[in-house]
């Protein structure tokens, strides 16, 4: 598996709806996104993944997650999500030039804009778009919106291409059907989760050597689907 490098963003918030909505918008823009709902998980992800940007709920910087600053590289851009009741304050000790703040409830589009802005401020380029993903005989070319298997171009619908792109962007990660609905169709989509099954079935017919025994898009029973980690 070969995937070109993406800018990495870590979101720390105990609200799963915030995590999912922000993650979805950032991933659609080409970022590699990690999410944590508790302090230990956040510290572990910072140490292992070395994110380029942090998006952190204020409480985790005020004692809820001691040590975030100590494990994050100096100068890591940080976007702080502040509860509306607290107001527009900065009671935490972060360098102003690498700190942005947004009042909650946040609009995921605003978070995306701030992530882009802080990376530009520090001279970091936007994540390379498009990216090419390779796995065995399968090649996904985002620039040309093309997929090939064994050198043979495969004709996918826009929905099938987006579904494959989302799954292959995080090989090994199990996506629920609800997550795939959000990332492929948008969070306002009101369709049935089983709609995903139909699109996966059609996708497998086009890219799998044996659709009945898939080697790329795997079923995770009781959960959803994942792209094979090879």
- Our Rg estimate from Cα atoms comes to 19 Å
CATH architecture of the largest domain: 3-Layer(aba) Sandwich
By secondary-structure content and strand pairing, the structural class works out as alpha/beta
Helix fraction? 25-40%
Cα shape:
elongated
| SSE ordering | EEHEHEHEEHEEEEHEHHEE
Commentary on this structure:
With 230 residues, the chain is α/β, with parallel strands linked by helices. The chain folds into two domains: 120 residues, Response regulator (Rossmann fold); 96 residues, Orthogonal Bundle (Arc Repressor Mutant, subunit A), CATH 1.10.10. It has a five-stranded antiparallel beta sheet, covered by helices on one side. The longest helix is centred in the middle third of the chain and has 14 residues. The termini are close together.
Briefly characterize the structure.
The protein has helices spanning 16-28, 39-49, 68-71, 108-121, 158-169, 177-185, 195-207, and strands at 2-3, 8-12, 32-36, 53-57, 78-82, 99-103, 132-135, 138-141, 146-149, 152-154, 175-176, 217-220, 224-227.
SSE inventory with pairings:
Blueprint: E1 2-3, E2 8-12, H1 16-28, E3 32-36, H2 39-49, E4 53-57, H3 68-71, E5 78-82, E6 99-103, H4 108-121, E7 132-135, E8 138-141, E9 146-149, E10 152-154, H5 158-169, E11 175-176, H6 177-185, H7 195-207, E12 217-220, E13 224-227
Parallel strand pairs: 2-3, 2-4, 4-5, 5-6
Antiparallel strand pairs: 1-7, 7-8, 8-9, 9-10, 11-13, 12-13
Helix pairs in contact: 1-4, 5-6, 5-7
């Amino acid at each position: 598996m070969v995937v070109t490098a993406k800018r990495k963003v870590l979101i720390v918030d105990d609200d799963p709806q915030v995590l999912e909505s922000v993650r979805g918008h950032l991933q659609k823009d080409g970022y590699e996104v990690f999410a944590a709902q508790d302090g230990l998980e956040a510290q572990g992800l910072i140490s292992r993944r070395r994110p380029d940007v942090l998006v952190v709920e204020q409480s985790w910087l005020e004692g809820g997650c001691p040590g975030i600053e100590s494990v994050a590289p100096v100068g890591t851009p940080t976007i702080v999500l502040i509860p509306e009741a607290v107001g527009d304050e900065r009671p935490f000790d972060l360098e102003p030039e690498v700190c942005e703040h947004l009042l909650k409830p946040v609009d995921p589009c605003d978070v995306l804009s701030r992530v882009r802005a802080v990376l530009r401020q520090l001279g970091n380029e936007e994540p390379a778009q498009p990216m090419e993903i390779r796995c065995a005989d399968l090649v996904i070319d985002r620039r040309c919106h093309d997929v090939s298997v064994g050198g043979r171009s495969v004709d996918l619908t826009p929905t099938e291409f987006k579904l494959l792109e989302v799954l292959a962007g995080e090989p090994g990660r199990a996506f629920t059907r609800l997550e795939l609905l959000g990332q492929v169709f948008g969070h306002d989509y009101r369709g049935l989760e089983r709609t995903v099954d139909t699109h996966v079935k059609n996708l497998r017919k086009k890219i799998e050597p044996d659709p009945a025994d898939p080697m790329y898009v795997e079923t995770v029973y009781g959960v959803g689907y994942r792209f094979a980690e090879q």
